[in-house]
């Protein structure tokens, strides 16, 4: 895969001379932090719907916890001379918290609970759930106790009542086993591909480096960093005073300035929602990304908008799923195209080095173990799906597509630190259905597609790239064992914590009341009413336009890749095309444009030293936005108040 061009990073890892030992205090801190963080993230994202850290690649809650560990360790060392945690241990805890955050995130457990807890509470004669859905739903995978569901949605109850807890533990125990197999599959892929990406392709993992930036005492003493932090701190404080204290305080409107209402004539009004956001953290992250990726991201965003205008000019309807220019299908094809590029680039790594010199034999043994674990996990997922009612060939095709998307998401983060990678509404099952129709699939297969909506709705809080970034930093800092064990522990603790600590406030406040955001209600309605019921009750024929655009997305990625090989310095990158056609890019295209302008000017007219001096200002933008916005969210969590949403 063609490499992105960028200025060499300032960060040089300084690994310990000896292997960093795994200490008991670090394990205890992990046991404490993962549940605490799960409750905090669930409260912000699902309960109060204020601040959504897991909708972006860099989680502000994990950054805040890292900074808290850094400050507490420094204070203890200053007061007593005792070193509570070394730098590598703090960063390992940061990645463990990151993995735990992904599990409780907006596109993981929040959707799982909604999908399995929806049908038996919201059934009525009008939606015909009992007639259409119940004959095909596997009862062992959903909550059927209406009394426990009533307590969940109405509130004034407790999860810890035996009748409520056991109503959920039955189906959740099966889903937790499934989830664990899925995460083990991700870890095996990480172990398999990480040597290729680090040693052979020299990927830099830009987002993983922020943990090192924020724990560098010399960087934190740089006044340029604090110049960058002042602006977002002022904006967040002022807007929170307006939201929390009194509307008498002025508010700075820096988010969701929509250009759509100002463009009313056809076909230009097909542009639709076109927001302009001034996210300091996105500008700061963007400045540290490769120039060609930045250019490709915002330029291809305009390219996607231009497609809508051209289609409208020809009289076709735009918007929604299954309509030209088929953005979801195009994006899915582009992600699969990138997955094939990844496999093609790694073909020598995957099929060589199994025997030879000592180091090659050692690497070969690791690859053999990773391949075996991947195969066993994959077979478990296929067997689980068949048991739930899916056709075997459909299960294999589904998980091949999902694995390809997951591998691509990890690559996007490793190669250029993609700030967003949501791929909304591109569930492999729903894409297959929109392409070839529903006559190939049994009702049970379509039902399992809908149940799998919980880890396919979007890929913003995908746990694989965060885990891979942690393993990468562990290798670079000679602390592989510590990082691997903490990430594995975060998975084991995070799976039950992400569900149980989200159900707890639901039962206390009522998931269907005004005290709780709409995640539990909306995600379940979406899986069944927007997807499954139409699949089961309507005739879906092959959509040749969608097939053509999906193939076009796949081939366009390869075309851009080949052009970059034979045209040195070609400014457009296939990754930019893949990530720019989905919802999250709507939010950050303008900050990435500003970052591109700033970085291009510095590289064009400045020196190597100028770039690194200026980069500290942009790291300050991230730090100031995350710390001030995050601390206000902590206050909102404790006080139970709505605060300013600095990242949406």
How are the elements arranged and paired?
Elements: H1 24-47, H2 60-80, H3 87-103, H4 109-116, H5 119-122, H6 129-132, H7 146-154, H8 162-200, H9 210-214, H10 217-220, H11 223-245, E1 257-258, E2 275-276, H12 280-287, H13 291-313, H14 327-345, H15 347-351, H16 358-388, H17 392-416, H18 428-436, H19 443-451, H20 463-476, H21 480-509, H22 519-537, H23 544-566, H24 574-579, H25 583-605, H26 608-639
Antiparallel strand pairs: 1-2
How would you characterize this protein structure?
It is a single chain. The protein is mostly helical. Helix content is 67%, strand content 1%. The protein is built from 26 helices and two strands. It has a two-stranded antiparallel ribbon with strand order 1-2. Helix 2 (60-80) packs across helix 26 (608-639), helix 8 (162-200) packs antiparallel against helix 21 (480-509) and helix 12 (280-287) packs across helix 25. The longest helix has 39 residues, at 162-200. The model is unreliable at 2-12 and 356-362 (pLDDT under 50).
> How many H/I helical runs?
26
Task: Give the proportion of residues in helices.
Answer: 55-70%
Q: Could you tell me how far the N terminus lies from the C terminus, measured between alpha carbons in angstroms?
A: 33 Å
User: Stretches where pLDDT falls below 50 for ≥5 residues?
Assistant: 2-12, 356-362
Largest sheet: 2 strands, antiparallel
Radius of gyration: 24 Å
Compressed to H and E, one letter per element, the order equals HHHHHHHHHHHEEHHHHHHHHHHHHHHH
The pLDDT mean sits at: 91
Shape: globular
Q: Numbering strands along the chain, what is their spatial order in the largest sheet?
A: 1-2
β-strand percent reads under 5%
Total strands: the figure is: 2
Structural class: mainly alpha
